[in-house]
Structure formats: structure tokens, C-alpha cells
Amino acid sequence: MLWWTLQQLKAKSAATRLAAVEKLALESQEAAVLALMEATRDPAKEVRRAAIAALARHPESNPVPTLCKLANDAELEIRCEVAAALGHLPGPQTFSVLLGLLSDSRGAVRWRSAKSLSKLRWTPSNMREMAAMQVAAGEYKSAARLGAPAIEPLRALLADPDSQTRRHALDALTTIADARVVQVLIQAMKDDDAGVRVMVAEAMVQFPDPRVLPPLLLALRDPASPVRAAAAQVLGKLGDPGSVDRLVETLRDTSWEVRKAVIEALGRLRDARAVEGLAGALKDSDNDVRETAVEALCQIGDPRALERLILALCDPETSIRQAAASALMRLDRNWERSDSAQRAIPELKAALKSRDYWIRQSAAEVLTRIGKNQSSMRGLQRGIGGAGQFRNDVAIQILSDALRDGDRDLRQAAVEALGRIGDHSLCEPMSSLLQDHDEVVRDSARTALMALGWPPPDNVILLQPRTADKWAKAM
């Protein structure tokens, strides 16, 4: 029967050859063992695996040299099978081969080799072997606690085809306080997986080494937006002024997440070179980007930002208007009297024509603040000159013109704003809206005039009996 089984190893069918190997595994004759050794060179992978596993049952035939030759086989499954088989065959050559397999490019082989060494009760002779053993067993954090000896085995994992393995290795590497880790991270910035590159960039903040700056600056042009955003954040945290110009260039990035990260970084760097670019970001299409730009400009504290922050008070988003108001108070508590406020008036006037209600309303509010501040300072203005009065007059004129606008909301906002200025000389133009064709506007005009204590002339009452009735009831 053995003869027939040996003949079946020559069959064309891989399934037939596999069945023959499985039968030979149960034989103890020398001819059977020699046939199994020959079968480790079979063209079919499954036949070779079965032969390797069978040889592990015959330690008396010294199959170790044959198995060791297969330790570098191109097939992952073959290397795994060799590592498992050697776990049954103790000896110096076995230990040597298994130690080599601890550095295999595939995690399954490394893990199997570590298990076989443990099974054979092998003991590391130095810290490097201990680190290699722990890394192969997947105990990355334990290996990292050994320090420098773990750098090389962990670095080797960065060539593993499994991105999750590479991430775990990087996570462990960054806990090792050794300058050599920096070079490993720099190399890892070339990883094919964007998630790994993000992790590497974020890890670089732990190593304030000049060598990390070039790869981080290069990462601002990475094809993956999360990588660009991570690089920007880290550059801001590292605080190197040499990154400002490149960060400013990246304000034009197509991804809002990247632009936001860049703005946060520039805010941390507090470099005046970024003011112009950040001021431009106040017109960004994304709400989060604009709000972050407000905060960054406040952090830098450059007075050149005042005009753009004043205009940000007209942003359609409430949170941004609030952020701008807070920033202005921190930068200049008297911003309403500033030259920046005067320069902002033309754009504020244009904002009164916006289709967006909140932009119109906010523009009117800002103009009111500018005008009201100047009204309260008239005595001082007469003593020091006419520049402040000019600003006041411009703001009031803009709001007065808006009383005749075709948009109901704008007329309403204008009369309410003029009422808040508190100047009785404005009552006459405001009273024209008591004859407005829109009831809401008429009511707003009446309320504003009442707050000023203005008595309506008889002709107004006669022209608008409905409004007059309300006025009479209110009085």
C-alpha cells in the first residue's frame, strides 16, 4: 500500500497528491518521511503546506534543515506553516530561523513565530530579542516601554501591508523618547494610506525637531485633505515662524477643513504677516472658517484688522457677528470712533442693499453705533475738530436715505436704527414713515418717535387716520 501511495504523489491532480501526503503523514517508515520532504517542493501550495505539517510529526527524522529552507518562501501560508511546524522541533537551528521570522513582513508569520518560541520556552538573551519577541506577538506598547531596542522592530512594521498594523506600530513608536524616531516618522509620511499620514503628522508635534518642518510643509500639498489639515494644525502648535508664508498660501485650499486648520495655526503663531490673508478669510463661504478667522485676527491683535472685523458685524451668521463684536471690544473698546470705522462706512452702506435681511439689519445696527457714539461725543467733537462729526453725518445720511428704500425690511431697520441714535433732529425724516404704505413700517416709526418724545403734527394724523388712532391710544 505504501508503494501505491508513493505513486499517487506523481499524479497530475493536486487533490490526489494532497490525499497521498495526508496518508504518508500517518506512516513512520523512512521512505514515507523522505517522500514528505520531497513533497515540500510540490507546485501546489496546499500540498506543500500539508507536507510541512506532516514533517513536524517526525522529529526523529531531523526535518529541520528541510523546513528551514522554506522559511523564505514567497507564499505567506508556507512561511506560517514553517513557523508552526518548527514549534514542535526544538534546537539551535530552529531558534535561529524563528528569530529571523520575528521580523517577517507579514504579521501572521511574526505572530506564529512568537507563539512557537513561547511554546519551546525560548528565553531572549538581550533586550533587542525581547523587543522583537513582543512586537511579533503584537504587544507593541510593552515593547515600546523597553525604549531604544524596540525602535527597529517597530520600524519594520511600517512595511506591513496592513494599514492597521502600521498605525499601531506608529502609536507605540511615538512613546519612545529617542531622536531616531523622528527619521522613522519622516519616512512614514510617504505611506500610501492617508490615515497613516494623518497619524504621523499629528505625532510630529511630540518631537520639536527642525527635521519635521520640511515634511510638514510638504504635507500642506498632500492629495488628502485630512493630511493637509493635520499638517497645518501641527505647524501651528510647533510655533515656527518659518511656516507662516506657506500657511498663508494654503488659505486658498479647496477644503474648508484645511482652511479652518490653517487659520487656527496662524492664530497660534500670532504673526502680523498673516493679517491680510486672514482678513480675506472673513469673506469665506464657510461659516466655521469665517468664525475661526475672527478669533485668529483677535489673537494676532493687529489694528489693521479692525475694518474687516467691523464689517464682520454684518455677517449673516449670528455666531460670527457675536465673535466679531467680542473681538472688537478686545482690540479697541472705542472702535466706533476709529478711522477704521470711517473706512468701513461705504461697505456698510452697500450692505443696506443686501438681499439678506440680517445683513441689512446688521449694517443698520453698525451704522447706528457709529452715529450714536458720535452724537454722544458732540461737545467734544466741537472742541477738537470736525472729523468725528463727519463720520456721524455720513452714518446718519446713509440711514436717512434708507428710509426711502423700496425694501420694507430696510425701511423698518433704518427707522429703528435712527431712533436708537437718540437725536431729536432726526424726528422729521423719521416721521415720513408714519405715512408708509406698510403697517409694520408705520408701527416701527411710531414706536421710535414715541421713544424720542416727538409729538406728531396734525397733518400727519389726518393723512394716516389708522396710524393716528394708534398714536392717540398710545398717548
Features:
0% strand; 475 residues; 31 helices; single chain; disordered C terminus; mainly alpha
Q: What gross morphology would you assign?
A: elongated
Characterize the largest beta sheet: strand count, sense, and whether it forms a barrel: none
Mean pLDDT: 87
Secondary-structure content class? mainly alpha
Strand content: under 5%
Q: Helical region count?
A: 31
Whole-angstrom Rg? 40 Å
In short:
By secondary structure, the protein is mainly α.
How do the strands and helices of this protein lay out in sequence?
Blueprint: H1 2-8, H2 14-24, H3 30-39, H4 45-55, H5 64-68, H6 76-86, H7 92-101, H8 107-119, H9 127-136, H10 140-144, H11 151-156, H12 163-173, H13 180-188, H14 194-203, H15 213-219, H16 225-238, H17 244-249, H18 256-269, H19 275-281, H20 287-300, H21 306-312, H22 318-331, H23 339-351, H24 357-376, H25 378-384, H26 387-402, H27 408-421, H28 427-431, H29 439-451, H30 458-463, H31 465-474
Report on the architecture of this protein.
The structure is a single chain. It is elongated and about 125 Å long. The chain is 67% helix and 0% strand. The relative contact order is 0.03. It is mainly alpha-helical and 475 residues long. α21 packs antiparallel against α22.
